[in-house]
Every structure is written in C-alpha cells, then in structure tokens.
Amino acid sequence: MGMTKIPQLQVINYILNTKDSSLISLNNLTDEYFSEYKDEFNFIKNHLDTYGRVCDVETFFSNFDVERLVVNESPEYLIKSLFDDYNTRKIVKVVNQIKPDLISGNVDDAVNKIKTTVENMSQGVSLQCVDILKDTRRYDDYIERTRDFGKYYISTGFPELDQIVGGFDREEELATIVARTNYGKSWILLKCAVAACKQGLNVGIYSGEMSERKVGYRIDTLISHISNGALTHGNESVQVQYQKYIENLSNMFSGSMKVLTPNMVNGPVTVNTLRLFIEKEHLDILFVDQLSLLEDQRKGYTPVEKMSNISKDLKLLQVLKRVPIISVCQQNRQASENGVDTTLIAQSDRIGQDSTMILFLEKKDDIMKLHLVKSRDSENGKVITYHTDINTGNFVYIPDAKDGIKGQPTIQQESFDYERPLPEDDYF
After folding, report:
1. pLDDT digit string, tens, across residues 272-319
2. Global confidence as pTM
3. Which end of the chain has fewer beta carbons closer than 10 Å to its terminal beta carbon, N or C?
4. CATH number of domain containing 27
5. How many domains would you assign to the chain?
6. Does one domain contain both 106 and 157?
7. What CA–CA distance (Å, rounded) separates 170 from 297?
C-alpha cells in the first residue's frame, strides 16, 4: 500500500468505525484530501448530508472493495497525517509548476509561488472532550496557580485592572480594547505590551497603521516618559536623555518585542499572517492594532461579514495556538441608551461574542475611564479612572468608591534610572 493511501484510508475507516463525522465538519474536508479514495469519501459525505449520519460499515463495504482497517490512532494523529499528506502533494505540485520559472531564470517568481503555497497550507483540528467528573487534574492546576500565579497570567500593565481580572490569561485570552478614534486605544495596547515584555515574554505587535519607528517612539515614551512629541518631531532638548535611554534599553528587559507592519508582508495581512508571525517568532503574546486593518481571508462580501470572519478566525487562532491575543477596534458612532456595552463595537457584534475580555475607553480631556464591559473570570461593569498625560506616557489612578479598588493612587515614574533593569515595583 502506498504511503499516500495510508492516512486517507485510516481516516475513512476511523469515520466508519466510530460514526464520528466531526473530522469532516471541523476541517471542511473535501475529496481533495482523498486523492486515492475520492469516490469513497464522497459516498460517506453524501450519505451524511442526506441522512444526517455516517453510513453503516456494511453499507459502505458493499459498495467499495477497499481494505478494512482497525484504527487505534487518535483523531489528532489521523487528521495531522491526512493534512501532512495533502500539503506534501501541494508542495510536489508547485515544485513541478516552477520548473519553467527556474529554467528561464525567474527565481523570484518561483520563490513567491513556494512561499504562497507554504503560507496557505491547511491546518487540521479534531474534537476531543473530557469527563470533568473523572478528570480532576484541574486540582493540580489550582495548586500550581497558588504557588506561581505569574505562570498563568500576564499583567495588563494596569495594577488596578489586574486586581479585578488577575491579568491576561496566558492560554485562553482574546481581549479587545474598544474606543473612538484618537481616544488612546493604541497607547493602552502598547502599555500592555511593555508590561508583557517586562515579564520576560516574547511579545509580538502587529501595527496596521503606524510604522515600526512610530511604534518604537511610543514604546520609548511609555518606558522612559520622555515627551513623545519631542521624539517624533526631533526636539534636540531631549537628545542627551534619549541617548542615555537608548544605550541601556537592551539591558532593561529580558523579553523581546517584535513589530510587524504591512510593509513587511508580501501580500495582504490576514489572520493566517498573524499565525505565521506567532510561529516564526515563537511569540508568547500577540497585540493587534487594529482589527479593521486586517484582510478577510474568507473574502466576505459586506463589512459586517468581513469583520465577523476575522473575529471567528482570530478566535480559532487563539484556541489552536494557546497564545493570548489582545487587539483594538473602533467604537461605532451610535449612542447607547444603556451606557457602554458590546453593541457599540463597530461593524460586528461577533467581536463581542468571541472576546473573553472587553475594555471600553472613555476619555474627556485628560481623564480616561476603563470600562470592564466583559470579563469571563471576574465581575463585569467595573470602571477604573486615570488622569493621563499621553505625551509622557503617565497614568495616575484616581480612586473611586464605585470601582471597588482599595489603596492609594498609583503614579507612574516620571523620572527614569537608565543604568539598571526595571525591577517589579518600578513599573507595576
């Protein structure tokens, strides 16, 4: 039996033996994945579509003379093997296609065809459930959290918010920051990114609008509190201070901060691009600025459909890669009689459904309020207020009886010691 036939035949036999059609539906399987058994697969698929269930083994084998197998491999292994087989055939096909390009000297065209094929390789998923009455491993997880909280959560960069939500969940967070234009969404996002980098994490930032240079200036301001206006406009009065900061920057953090912009990508930036970003740079957390600047890889027709597709794909990416994803999106212009809620998210309420945490920003003059509209693991409806100076990256917490936070105001450092790494108490 050829190697190509083995995974295809195993999957067919597994579906027949277990009556489990989830491999088909979860992975949108078509006969393209079954080059050696197209008719056999289509028979199973048509029976499923017509009668709502997988056909009996006897029904199938009375119509086809193929080998009957006992399959003991896990669904994860089977679907990975099937997709590996499918992707290998795609690579072989493109290699044959680029031979004329290589012969004629069009190396760039050949390379681009291979890159496009690799970027669009299929990734399989399988469905596995757990009996929580028998599987009590979560108790061990609970004990581990009591001993090493930082292993499971990432600080948001706002101590008062951390007290409520605990931070960003390291494996199960899809958080969204929502506000109107020029309210400071990107600043909040980058402040969260700095906090993650300070914890020694490999941080990824996709900036759909700002260049890496401007992102860098904002990061510099958030760390050093040097005037952002002075940095972006080239004010000589901060040169000595800025030079001292830059010379010591690489020694301040044990983590990394990788920035990706559209100019660095050959083609449209989609959720699949973000997946490659996570994989290539081994990211521990991803920040996306902003959702409306991503392309819909499913090619939806309306803005609402496109944003809904992006949200669903981003949720799937987070689940598959188990990396927290924090993004920003626009608030629509419609006023809400019920105050701040998820209906104010522009273009798609799907974002509100998929997000595990939603923060709405409200800003008037220098007063910024963070509305915790949705949080899966804490109480919703909390409001945290800050006096802000965006130009210097300073946030002063304003205690309020309604926010449930106890303690004194937290004032970010306005001066910075460039000669030493940041200890915990200096930033959080």
Report:
1. 999 999 999 999 999 999 898 999 988 888 888 999 999 999 999 999
2. 0.66
3. N
4. 1.10.860.10
5. 2
6. no
7. 26
